[in-house]
């Protein structure tokens, strides 16, 4: 438990949350901002700054629960679509530095969540070089 971490406090029960799922490893609760109805956060009980700081086993455990909770959110909300996002570091929009995965039900593409990918002309030489670099790192 990290003293000044709001999600550690939620896991410990020191701050209330709208719990939707809990087991030994993870807690899932409604995000207070509710970008769409049913917006849920899944957090590991053991503190880590974000996914990039977690080992493969702990990450696999977390994502197994993300899948389970996403199915439950879908069943409860009847949302026809969903985004699952985890922000890592400030540039990527992380504001709470305890790993969390957002489950965001989508009811319409006119809601208040905007995710846009700008397309670029593919440079296949560059792609091959970059893919190789990633493979070897
Ligand atoms: P991120 O920007 O990815 O770090 O997301 C942090 C999320 O935590 C935001 O969507 C906040 O609305 C949410 N949040 C912050 N405090 C609480 C809280 N006490 N209970 C539930 N959600 C919270
Ligand atoms: Zn924490």
UniProtKB/TrEMBL annotation:
Name of the molecule in the record? HIT family protein
Gene source species:
Streptococcus lactarius
Task: Find motif (Histidine triad motif) and give its ranges.
Answer: 98-102
The record ties this protein, via CDD domains, to: HINT_subgroup
Active site residues according to the UniProt entry: 100 (tele-amp-histidine intermediate)
Extract the SUPFAM superfamilies matched here: HIT-like (SSF54197)
The entry lists its GO molecular-function terms as: catalytic activity
Question: Start and end of every HIT domain?
Answer: 6-114
Q: Name the GO terms of the biological process aspect.
A: nucleotide metabolic process
